[in-house]
Amino acid sequence: MDDRSDAQHIGADHQLTSPRPWYRERWVLWTSLLLLLLVVVIVIVVIHENNVKAAAAKHALAAVKPSVTATVVTAYKGNIGVYLDAIGTVTPVYTASITAEVTGVLTDVHYTEGQIVKKGDALIEIDPRPYQAQLMQAEGTLERDTNLLAEAQMDMERYRTAWARNGINKQLLDDQEKIVLQDQGTVKNDQGTVDYDKVELGFCHITAPISGRMGLRLVDPGNVVQSGQSTVLVVITQEQPITVIFTLAEDSLGQVQAQMKKLHTLPVEALNDTQTKQIAKGKLMTINNQINTTTGTVLLRAQFDNKDGALFPNQFVNTRLLVNTLNGVTLVPSGAIQHNGQVSFVYLISNGAASIRNVTTGVTDGGLTAVEGINPGDVVATSSFEKLQNGSKVVVAKQAPATNAPAGNTP
Questions:
Q1: Is residue 13 part of a domain?
Q2: CA distances from 343 to 8, 99, 353, 358 (A)
Q3: What would the mean pLDDT of 224-242 be, rounded to a whole number?
């Protein structure tokens, strides 16, 4: 019984440890792959449906997105100036620093500080009495020597008559003629002394050599002024007309000279320090005769009437020199031009929609810019750039005028 039981147990153990059939392992593998493939398909389908729904939602949102409200302006054909900008210094045409030509006591000052005087107006008086006495003395000497000359001339005429009758020796006549010549030289010297003393007497009455504005009073009555010294008694600066000296780069000299040869002069504007207000209008007078090799610039002088006194000596101003005028170009407000890196573009408005149009910019003046890439009559946006896109629907708020257009240009 024991042997049989052991055999049965051995047979049972053998059945439990025997290998599984091969077809069962393959069935498990294929089932796993099919399940994995099914999961992948399901994920792809779900993602696709989500994308479709998102696109549809985005399209629906775009369909109901409100239009952009913007102001617009119409590009037009016109003229625009080509300017060269520079910084200049207001410089008087004439500046007179008056010093004393004679020594004496200053007796009177006729001007007030900042007064506008005309040429010949009285300014300062120096005590003239010493010079009047000196002139009188010189005139007395001249009068005496003039009479001595007249006496010598009468004697010479008597000697000539006597010599003609053989009444005297020829030597006496010759000597008398030389005496007359000596007296003539003495009289001429006396006359020069009188003229010099008159000039010195005139220096006691100082008048304005030019018309202009008086500076601060530098001397007072009672002071003694000395001739031959550099002490300035008063300074006068001419303000009407007045000039502005400014510099330009030597690279710009060629086009300025070319225009000067054709027109002989060029318009120049003087602007304030922020270049927002025109102070005065003038014209270019001359170009300096050499270039500064240190800075590579050349000096130019422009003249202004300055009738309103807006330009003041030594004032710094911004200058704009008109060197050329471009005719028949397409103009738009500078604010309508947008930039994307090196590319300039505008939003062209047509049939209620915006489209991006690349342009090439040129000269800018007075808030206007010359452009290429659009035509006169095209409508461009001037606001709401942060909302505009290519294809955006646009509602025009108003037709903005092309402000600051140059004279003669009509949108």
A1: no
A2: 96, 64, 22, 7
A3: 91
